[in-house]
């Protein structure tokens, strides 16, 4: 995934990403940034891992899917509210177990074929079969047999249990064209094909890719969505260093930067032609520990590390942020602001260290972080200094995001410490709880290894409970259980920090996946 070769793409997707001997063509940043009215440049430090809407995760993948594919329902506004997408309207029964969606008759795939109820049924079935990507959001709530086509334009969902956030999760289950995927099934349900090809109906499609450099999306000729801006295309440009992202914004070489530090934002405060977006959202930063393999499988060591951590330094390095009080973001349903959590206490750290098999330390842990992401590098250095107090070393390994995701596949490849930003895709506690701590997520970056049956049971009870007071009670038990298990170092709640040129028109902040920019409503003027 480190190749810089360029590839020619068809309208519906990439040609194979290997063995294509096309000449590399460099598209200078200024050409994109100054293109006549049309090409938005977004500077990001994260590659897009693959193009399959039912397997890819991470904010770069979310950006790609939001722009190339369509869900039944989109989300926008602050607070976030469900909005029509492929579905122009819907109905729900009294107990919240049955939803009926009417599809927009204008909806078309990039092939020119209409989007039908059968495509929706197929897409949800495929997502559940693969059990990857965002399927965790609907697992045990939606079943393949519970999604049916009433007629070509009507889809019915019969849920296994009431699920209050259902409309909030639908924006992250994307619809593929059944005929295209079935023509390219191979032996893996089309996974190989959709790694590098698309089968969507979104307002943009892939035009050109240089892995590790840029992803160019062009406005789809069949774009049918209402409310669009004047963009001819979008470039997701890989810029590893946040300082370089900032300079590109200052110079007008990029229109939006999504990975900036607090220092970068301070530097841009009076920059001409620059708009800063600094907004609270449900975004946690924690450092996950390997609870299944290696030294951190010992809960006493995890507690020792949690007490040895310099939380003040983590907060200072974060800038626009607050310290987390447990695993949930402040203000979300069920969060306990009085929860007793770990704070720096070297005496307690040594007390728990004495209970381990290596009370004197003398070993080295491994911590990965995203290459070029300055904030994570600083936190890794803080952990290096914190662990020295316990005579523990720390090997700091910067890596590209796809390689970090690959390391999450098993406890044996997962490092001892792994920093994670968890941004809520939907504004409900279930998002953070299920993604970050349910064992069904094992092997994914959100929760690579933590596996506890009691925690699973609490999460499952809360996500199917529609009484808010009962949900609060369950989430209280959930938070106390996680503090006791100490699978993470609970870090900070950062405010989202975006910078953009004032030429960008039509932008509205939404506090879910706000770094996965939805480009269709935007214009350059």
UniProtKB/TrEMBL annotation:
GO cellular component terms attached to this protein's record: ATP-binding cassette (ABC) transporter complex; outer membrane-bounded periplasmic space
Any Pfam family: SBP_bac_5
Source domain of life: Bacteria
InterPro entries linked: Peptide/Ni-bd, SBP_5, SBP_5_dom, TAT_signal
GO molecular function ontology, one term from the record: peptide transmembrane transporter activity
Main location: periplasm
GO biological process, one term: peptide transport
Family per similarity comment: Belongs to the bacterial solute-binding protein 5 family.
Protein known as: ABC transporter substrate-binding protein
Domain Solute-binding protein family: start-end pairs: 81-443
Localization per record: Periplasm
């Amino acid at each position: 995934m480190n190749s810089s070769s360029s590839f020619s793409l068809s309208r519906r997707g990439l040609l194979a990403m290997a063995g294509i001997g096309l000449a590399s063509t460099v598209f200078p940043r200024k050409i994109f940034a100054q293109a006549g009215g049309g090409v938005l440049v977004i500077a990001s430090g994260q590659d897009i891992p693959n193009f399959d809407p039912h397997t890819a995760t991470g904010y770069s993948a979310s950006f790609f899917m939001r722009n190339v594919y369509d869900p039944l329902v989109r989300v926008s506004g602050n607070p976030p509210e469900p909005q029509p997408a492929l579905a122009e309207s819907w109905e729900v029964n009294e107990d919240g177990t049955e939803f009926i969606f009417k599809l927009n008759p204008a909806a078309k795939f990039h092939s020119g074929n209409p989007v039908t109820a059968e495509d929706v049924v197929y897409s949800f079935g495929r997502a559940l079969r693969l059990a990857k990507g965002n399927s965790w959001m609907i697992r045990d709530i939606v079943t393949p047999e519970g999604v049916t086509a009433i007629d070509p334009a009507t889809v019915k969902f019969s849920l296994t249990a009431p699920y209050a956030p259902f409309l909030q999760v639908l924006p992250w289950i994307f619809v593929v064209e059944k005929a295209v995927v079935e023509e390219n099934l191979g032996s893996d349900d089309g996974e190989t094909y959709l790694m590098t090809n698309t089968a969507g109906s979104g307002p943009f499609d892939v035009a050109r890719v240089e892995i590790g450099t840029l992803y160019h999306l062009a406005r789809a000729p069949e774009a049918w969505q209402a409310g669009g801006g004047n963009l001819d295309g979008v470039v997701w440009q890989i810029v590893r260093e946040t300082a370089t992202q900032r300079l590109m914004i200052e110079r007008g070489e990029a229109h939006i930067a999504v990975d900036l530090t607090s220092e970068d934002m301070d530097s841009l405060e009076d920059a001409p032609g620059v708009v800063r977006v600094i907004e609270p959202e449900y975004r946690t930063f924690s450092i996950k520990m390997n609870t299944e393999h290696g030294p951190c499988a010992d809960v006493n060591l995890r507690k020792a590390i949690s007490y040895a951590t310099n939380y003040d330094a983590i907060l200072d390095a974060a800038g626009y942020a607050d310290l987390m009080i447990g695993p949930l973001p402040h203000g979300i349903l069920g969060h306990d602001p009085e929860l007793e959590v770990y704070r720096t206490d070297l005496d307690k750290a040594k007390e728990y260290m004495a209970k381990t098999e290596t009370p004197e330390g003398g070993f080295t842990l491994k911590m990965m972080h995203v290459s070029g992401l300055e904030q994570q590098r600083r936190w890794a250095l803080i952990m290096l200094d914190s662990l020295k107090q316990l005579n523990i070393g720390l090997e700091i390994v910067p890596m590209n995001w796809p390689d970090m995701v690959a390391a999450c596949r098993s406890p044996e490849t997962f490092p001892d410490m792994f920093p994670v930003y968890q941004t809520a895709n939907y504004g409900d506690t279930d998002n953070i709880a299920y993604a970050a701590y349910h064992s069904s997520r094992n092997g994914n970056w959100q929760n690579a290894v933590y596996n506890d049956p009691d925690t699973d049971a609490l999460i499952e009870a809360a996500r199917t409970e529609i009484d808010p007071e009962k949900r609060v009670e369950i989430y209280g038990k959930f938070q106390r259980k996680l503090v006791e298990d100490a699978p993470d170092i609970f870090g900070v709640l950062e405010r989202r920090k975006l910078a953009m040129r004032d030429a960008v028109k039509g932008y509205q902040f939404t506090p879910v996946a706000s770094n996965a920019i939805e480009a269709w409503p935007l214009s350059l003027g």
